Amino acid sequence: MNPFEQITIVGVGLLGGSLARVCKKKGLAGKVVGFGRTPEKLKRAQELGIIDAYATDLQTAVEHADLVVLCTPVSTLGPLASEMAPFLEPGCIVTDVGSVKKTVVGDIQSQLPDPVHFVGSHPIAGGEKSGFEASTSDLFEQQKCIVTPTPKTNPSALSRVKELWEQTGMRVISLDVEEHDTVFGAVSHLPHVIAYILMNTIGETSTKNHAEVISFSGGGLRDITRIASSNPVLWRDICLANKKPVLNLIDKFQEALQQVRSTIENEDSQLLEQTFERANKYRLNLL
Amino acid sequence: MNPFEQITIVGVGLLGGSLARVCKKKGLAGKVVGFGRTPEKLKRAQELGIIDAYATDLQTAVEHADLVVLCTPVSTLGPLASEMAPFLEPGCIVTDVGSVKKTVVGDIQSQLPDPVHFVGSHPIAGGEKSGFEASTSDLFEQQKCIVTPTPKTNPSALSRVKELWEQTGMRVISLDVEEHDTVFGAVSHLPHVIAYILMNTIGETSTKNHAEVISFSGGGLRDITRIASSNPVLWRDICLANKKPVLNLIDKFQEALQQVRSTIENEDSQLLEQTFERANKYRLNLL
To answer: Which domain holds residue B215?
Structure first.
């Protein structure tokens, strides 16, 4: 692809750092600039060769960029867009990596002047690790990236952003913002809430002789609660930004759990088996 | 340890098959006999050298055994104990591998005549795979095995059973039956119920444009739902056999989930972060 002159990565964490590495490795930009609030971290990222330069001042960071990628938690995206708006060059493309799209796309788009082109992105990569120390240039390989164009989206900016993600090794799929938020509410946000709550329920269970029960856990529990290690601030923001779909999904989950509770209470062996078998079948589709 | 003359393994599946392999490998028994209902499977296990002999008739299988290990689903244990009781030699030791202990120990103990010694066991090994084809002689290595003696348990039978599990590579811990059932209700049974229900909730979520949302899942969802692949009949039986603790734990989980639901609805950002952070801390204890 035709490289960008300067890509500015706002938030050099796991995703931002990994994107910076790919840009450098594949020559996707003449210059990769990192923006953050902590100069020590940015300096370290520069020393590691992850970014070419850095700034802790937003104007300096973005004023010469033809692409700005917002890689900070979803709650910061609207305020950041507003803060950088006066300094962006006409024709500059702005994208993000937020896990929620309807509120985020609205927040960002409303802050940017017309000659700046915003395209919502959600690369499905990451995990419970965070920080640029965990970043790798192959984080995105073989993963999916969702882009969420709206009627306002500039078609050539959309193509450029798609191209960028394809260069990182991802398969790019377009979804509308609401569709995106229901899909990821189900496959990502709800599972995180459930993992956190399950971990708390188990952590707070004690028996008459043992202070805690966790020491008896096996591999199954380690797997099911792995995402309970995820960053609390990040997931707090995601749940709040995707409030409506997340609440709907919690309601559906609670209803299904209440049903299985009655099935166990009534010892309806056949229905209980059917319920678990249905889950087996859905699980097969994940493999 | 002093080897048994004949160990009869009732149910040559993942656990039974793995125990048979260890017994053969370490010479823990003069003879390992497998009992089951499907001669083809038992023949295959014999051909593979997992067992020395087999029987599909319970009398033949157990009448010369000095140790019988019940490795079938928990709902079958009481009826099997009753069926084999007339054929067991005085002094014979019977143990099991059931994931639930209070109801199971009661069911088995009440069926066996006094000169036969029952010791409840629960080796914490296995996983979502099943069948002797998946069995290995190192399945138990480094794992925990719970034994659940009661005031009626014969002390030398208890020692023999402990020794057996230690020989498989496990660390043996004694718990009383109720303690066991609360602990494993929390760290194992509740997580399975939650994984099944989460899988069903996600599997039954559709959006206006997509028939299913599962195709957008990432590694996080694969991990959290891995145990939703577990055998439905096995887990149906476990939930029913450990009904009271499981219902209590479902109630605690529902309460905690309801609380987080309100927290999201009220946008109480600080409380939501604290809730997720608590889960982070409990999760650290699992590592």
So the answer is: 179-284
